Amino acid sequence: MRAKRIGAKKIQIAPFSSRKSNPIHLVQLICPHLSRNVFSNSYKNCILSVGYQKLQIKRVIRFIMIGESCVGKIMYRTQIYIMLLFGISINGYSREIQCKSWQTYVKEHTVKSYVKKDGTRLKQTIRKAHCREKWKYADKWGPLFQNTKPDYWPQSKEDFKKWSSQEKEFIFQELSEIPLIHHYRVNSILRAKKSKDKKNPASSIPETKDIVLYDLYFDSKDTKEILTHEMAHIIAHQIETKYISIFAEKSGWKLEINKRQVYEVPPTKLIKKDSSFSIEEDFCNYFEIYVTNPEKIKKFNLDIYNLLKQRFPL
């Protein structure tokens, strides 16, 4: 006879040969602290919850194969096998952690001791199984991908579509390269076919913090610039109005009063042609270029560059 320790209790285990006559011994081995009725609910619960934390799966499978032809009643035999196989699938082969599509599963492993750059020595440790982002900040953006049009979307004739896995991966990569935007709230990232404005690759609703990308976006060469620009519209509504006022002044915007009405007069020197549409559009154009080509802003308007750098350090 051999002894195996389960918890703090020693249990006598017969050799393999003596167990061929009845696999019920296996069930009693797994849950020895319960009654001898191996078909009671308490036994079922024990097997399904903790049974295979105490026995190796390979041994369990071997026991089943050995005792297959030796159980007295067919119904009891079937009941045992269903319980055991279901227990294996839950506790043996399935992961305790279910990762998202933008994550990769990292199994439990040993991290060897090493010395950090500052001279600190870290001891060897066991790193528990966990999910790791495939892209930086993916845990923030992953849940925001939506496949249906919101009820409040202003353009009722625009057709929305489902995100493909390739498109998501592309956006994850783009977002990982724009670290400045990750501190700001976004409600959803949507996918649509065509904009009501045929040449428009993307759009946004800053008030609801939604961004939509059209088919044309994925055909564009300037995807990072486009995405940054739409994010800038949402950011502009989350920062202080005082900051936007300082920006407008440094950019060259002026207020003009005519017949008791106030008009915003755009600068004579524009970073882009459509910057004259509004102060917000001007800010988004500056922000887009600041992220993708900061040297251009530095040469074009040093005051704006310093203002953006102060609030959005690269």
What does this structure look like?
- The chain has 314 residues and is an alpha+beta fold.
- The chain folds into 3 domains: 2-93, no CATH class; 103-133, no CATH class; 138-311, no CATH class.
- Helix content is 41%, strand content 17%.
- The protein contains 12 helices and 14 strands.
- It has helices at residues 24-30, 41-54, 57-67, 74-93, 138-141, 165-176, 215-218, 223-236, 241-251, 279-292, 294-300, 302-311; strands spanning 2-6, 9-13, 103-106, 109-111, 114-115, 121-122, 125-127, 130-133, 145-146, 188-191, 202-205, 210-213, 254-258, 261-265.
- The strands form 6 sheets. It has a 4-stranded mixed β-sheet. Strands 1-2 form a two-stranded antiparallel ribbon.
- A hairpin with a 2-residue loop joins strand 13 and strand 14 (261-265).
- It is globular, with a radius of gyration of 32 Å.
- The termini are far apart.
Write the layout of secondary structure elements.
Elements: E1 2-6, E2 9-13, H1 24-30, H2 41-54, H3 57-67, H4 74-93, E3 103-106, E4 109-111, E5 114-115, E6 121-122, E7 125-127, E8 130-133, H5 138-141, E9 145-146, H6 165-176, E10 188-191, E11 202-205, E12 210-213, H7 215-218, H8 223-236, H9 241-251, E13 254-258, E14 261-265, H10 279-292, H11 294-300, H12 302-311
Parallel strand pairs: 9-10, 10-12
Antiparallel strand pairs: 1-2, 3-8, 4-7, 5-6, 11-12, 13-14
Helix pairs in contact: 2-4, 8-10, 9-10, 10-11, 11-12
